[in-house]
Amino acid sequence: MSTKIEEALEHIKTAQKYLKTSVLRWKPDFDSAADEFCQAAQCYRIARDLKQARDCYYRASESYKKNRSFFHAAKALEQALLVGKELSNADELFNLALEASSLYQQHGSGDSAAGLLDKAGRILEQDTPQLAVKLYQHAADISANESSQHQGIEYISKASRLLVRLERYDEAVDNLRREIGFHLEANNLPAVGRLCVAIVLVQLARGDTVAAEKSYKEWGGHCEMAEVQTLDQLLQAYDEEDPDSARKALRSPFIRSMDVEYSRLANCIPLPEPLDPMMRAGVRENAAPSYVSPNASTSASVEHHRAYDEENEESPYEPVTYGPKKIEEEDEDEELC
């Protein structure tokens, strides 16, 4: 090990000589110095001195940047990130990954930039998933610009699942919409149907059944038969406020076969509260009173007086009864005369 450390020190001395100017060398030789720093870092890695190895990669990257060798500068930073993942904190690794990806993009290597962000995201995912989400989203954006839809779908899908795991449902809905957009551009319609189920589950976890129904109407045309049956049963149960049917729908085989984050989410979605049978037919408890017009009392009294007057008013068309005619009596009087 000591021999490797001594070898590393020799490489550092040589690199420093390349950085100095002299009568015969008017400009520093950054490229040669960077190569020496990389060799020194490799010797330190073999000697298990990771801190020194990381610092040498930093110095190599700076020398490459001064020589405008952006690809090699990014490569040195990528090695520094991998070496120092146990030494640096999460914020340092995050910023290092962004800087290295920017250098890759300046060189025109978008795929390498996205791949580096994916590596950094996997390093940060366990302890700081919120930072990993940003890296995955940035990687998806870079892949979209590079017309690499397949890789972009993979990165944006990781971000969606992490957001669901973090219970950041509002952001998860937006991210799932972006993921659906990626699949539509790639003409991968069966995946859109599966994501429709996922976005409905997230909307129900938010407690917004109306948004869940709108999402189903928007993307349900791409669903297959199993997905349609699952969503119909689920949304109908929430519409009828039937907790038993909702629980049965959330435990359907299709939802259980989804990604782990979504199948676990189904177990955490609040079920609808059952209604009392009397409340179903009658008025709900604590319901708002029905609207009554402020003129209702006045009009009611007017109607009452009008009805009273009509009852007591004499009708001009009272029926008239006539007595029987006394024809026989008149005939007798005539005979007497």
Tell me what the structure shows.
The chain has 337 residues and is mostly helical. The chain has three domains: 1-82, no CATH class; 89-187, Tetratricopeptide repeat domain (Serine Threonine Protein Phosphatase 5, Tetratricopeptide repeat, Alpha Horseshoe), CATH 1.25.40.10; 207-275, no CATH class. Helices cover 73% and strands 0% of the residues. The chain is built from 18 helices and no strands. Helix 5 (90-107) runs antiparallel to helix 6 and helix 10 (189-205) runs parallel beside helix 15 (260-268). The chain starts with a helix and ends with a helix. Residues 279-305 and 313-337 have low confidence and may be disordered.
What is the helix content?
Answer: over 70%
Top-tier CATH class of the largest domain: Mainly Alpha
CATH topology of the largest domain: Serine Threonine Protein Phosphatase 5, Tetratricopeptide repeat
Instruction: Return Rg in Å.
Output: 42 Å
H and E string: HHHHHHHHHHHHHHHHHH
Number of domains: 3
User: Roughly what fraction of the amino acids lie in strands?
Assistant: under 5%
First-residue to last-residue Cα separation: 171 Å
Helical region count? 18
- The residue-averaged pLDDT reads 82
Shape: elongated
Low-pLDDT sequence parts: 279-305, 313-337
CATH architecture tag of the largest domain: Alpha Horseshoe
Name the CATH homologous superfamily of the largest domain. Answer: Tetratricopeptide repeat domain
Structural class determined from secondary elements: mainly alpha
Largest sheet: none
Would you report the number of β strands? 0
Organism: Bombyx mandarina (Wild silk moth)
Subcellular location: Membrane
InterPro entries: NSF_attach (IPR000744), TPR-like_helical_dom_sf (IPR011990)
Keywords: Coiled coil, ER-Golgi transport, Membrane, Protein transport, Transport
